[in-house]
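Input (structure):
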């Protein structure tokens, strides 16, 4: 009786283990013909045109691109909203498989996560109200200036304009609200996102642009997850080669310069 009972328990445990192996995100043990792996992607819902929600669906340049990349790699996607300041840590601790949020690949961030190959470059700007005395980076000195916490804009302002009174916001919605209500006089933010706000609100203007071509954007993955990173890179190369990258660029961020590496090859 004891032997039979142990055999039943062993079979049950083996069955649970096998099921877990097949359903766990990122498992490489699924048999041929099994349902595609589902990538859990952390992103933002309030930063158009790169990453935002529309009618309950996460979209924008970055998110539509990662959808295409995943499809080319035979993967499915599941998007979950989060704050930017928490995103890289959540990728590192396996809450998410991928981080999608126009993330500039800084050396500091590379200590926390690995990145895909570049899929765009960083351009940041100063967004202010029309008629503001802010006309360039130097004029931010002594003023209350908004940034999204832990972004390139946050680090840039702290490094280059130490006299600015930096106000760190957790989300894009709270930052734009702060600018509109006057709690900050300017906002250092990605150029493409700033352009979207000026189109929607004629009281706003871009009063300065800062190029950061040495900072490419990449999709974040857990450090050491080389297999997933390789799949993303293969999908990205395919999306560039067949013109999908260019099509999405022209739809979402047409004013952002296009580097030669992203142009489809004839």
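Output (sequence):
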């Amino acid at each position: 009786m004891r032997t039979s009972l142990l055999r039943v328990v062993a079979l049950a445990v083996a069955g649970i283990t096998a099921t877990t192996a097949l359903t766990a995100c990122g498992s490489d043990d699924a048999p041929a013909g099994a349902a595609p792996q589902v990538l859990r992607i952390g992103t933002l819902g309030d930063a158009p045109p790169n990453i935002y929600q529309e009618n309950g669906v996460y979209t924008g340049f970055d998110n539509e691109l990662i959808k295409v990349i995943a499809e080319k790699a035979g993967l499915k996607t599941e998007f979950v909203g989060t704050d930017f300041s928490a995103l890289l840590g959540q990728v590192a601790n396996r809450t998410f498989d991928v981080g999608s949020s126009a993330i500039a690949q800084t050396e500091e961030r590379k200590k926390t996560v690995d990145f895909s190959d570049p899929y765009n470059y960083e351009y940041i700007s100063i967004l202010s109200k029309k008629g503001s005395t802010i006309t360039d980076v130097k004029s931010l000195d002594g003023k209350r200036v908004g940034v999204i916490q832990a972004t390139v804009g946050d680090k840039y302002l702290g490094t280059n304009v130490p006299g600015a009174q930096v106000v760190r916001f957790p989300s894009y919605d709270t930052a734009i609200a702060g600018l509109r209500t006057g709690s900050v006089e300017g906002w250092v933010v990605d150029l493409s996102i700033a352009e979207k706000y000026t189109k929607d609100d004629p009281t706003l203007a871009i009063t300065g642009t800062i190029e950061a071509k040495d900072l490419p954007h990449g999709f974040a993955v857990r450090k050491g997850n080389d297999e997933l990173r390789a799949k993303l890179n293969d999908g990205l190369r395919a999306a560039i080669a067949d013109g999908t990258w260019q099509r999405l660029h022209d739809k979402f961020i047409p004013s952002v310069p296009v580097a030669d590496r992203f142009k489809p090859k004839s």
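Notes: Residues 1-35 have pLDDT under 50 and may be disordered. The helical segments are 2-23, 61-72, 84-92, 152-160, 172-181, 191-200, 226-241, 244-252.
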